[in-house]
Amino acid sequence: MRESFSDRFRGDVELSGLPDHALLGIINIPGSVAASPWALIGRRLFYALALTFAITLLVYFDKGAYTEDLTFIDALYYSAVSLSTTGYGDITPVTQQARLINILIVTPARIAFLILLVGTTLSVLTENSRKTLQIQRWRKTVRNHTIVIGYGTKGRSAVDALRADGTPASHIVVIDTDKHALQRAEQRGLVTVYGSGTKGDVLKIAGVARARSVVVAPSSDDTAVLVTLSVREMAPKAMIVASVRESENQHLLEQSGADSVVISSETAGRLLGLATVTPTVVEMMEDLLSPDEGFAVAERSVGEDEVGANPRHLADIVLGVVRSGELYRIDSPEAETVEPGDRLLYIRRTTGERPEKVRD
């Protein structure tokens, strides 16, 4: 049987075939930050030593109530042997008062001591079980989300734009091979997947087949082409937006299945050229591209009272009309009249305005 494209880029281990508990180091879903096992051990060790010292003082102050007159070391020895349930029996309480203290205080302290000893293991197992159930539930329910492949400068900027446009953090999944980058993404409340976006099993556990859109933003153009090919094969209906450094590689991404290609080097070059002639234009362009302040380019549905009107005469500054997935600039003949079902590409004020969620 002929091998599919994505099969050629799989590693030795098929991640999508692993049980959920084996994906704890691969998929990270943001939640409360759990203390490390070493911190748990240190804290419980401190509690155990404090409990031992407290019982030592209790026994030492009642040292005449035992089979021998105890020194402080004897009291410490008795406390350690009793709390650890070793119980050699060489030192025992002989008075009614001492035995009552052992029943009411030392025995509960012994139980608490044992709980402290096994508490770290129980905490780690409980935390792992909680994360496993969380991953299992997420994999079953995730859909219509956006996958960002590559969390470098371009990937972070794409996430900023998505968040500013109303996309919740829980609907964004970041794929990267840099664990430090994934940690930064997780701190922002994003679901992260450790692995290469060129591998089909990594894309599969990220739910690419049910994703609404995929942002391809790796550091190299050849990786972008491979990722786009893999994504398009596994998600024929997903919107793929890819970034490329050099313009000569644009057609490769388009042939690979990208719906939209952004040429980062040419865009930066144009802005640099404009800055030498008309820096105010560059300032306005940066304002439009910054999603959290000033103005921004957005898309919205047409209101019922706007149908049949000329988009130039609307209250908003309209740049174009999106009709049946096709964008028509405001100066084109197709954009002379607003029709039912159209969407408007316009300039909105970001300060104090709640952005409309884009359509699924």
From TrEMBL:
Protein name: Ion channel protein
Domain RCK N-terminal: 143-263
Compartments, as annotated in UniProt: Cell membrane
Keyword Transmembrane found: yes
Listed transmembrane segments: 45-61, 100-125
GO cellular component: plasma membrane
Keyword ATP-binding: no
InterPro entries in UniProt: K_chnl_dom (IPR013099), NAD(P)-bd_dom_sf (IPR036291), RCK_N (IPR003148), Trk_Ktr_HKT_K-transport (IPR050721)
GO BP term, example: potassium ion transport
Record membrane topology: Multi-pass membrane protein
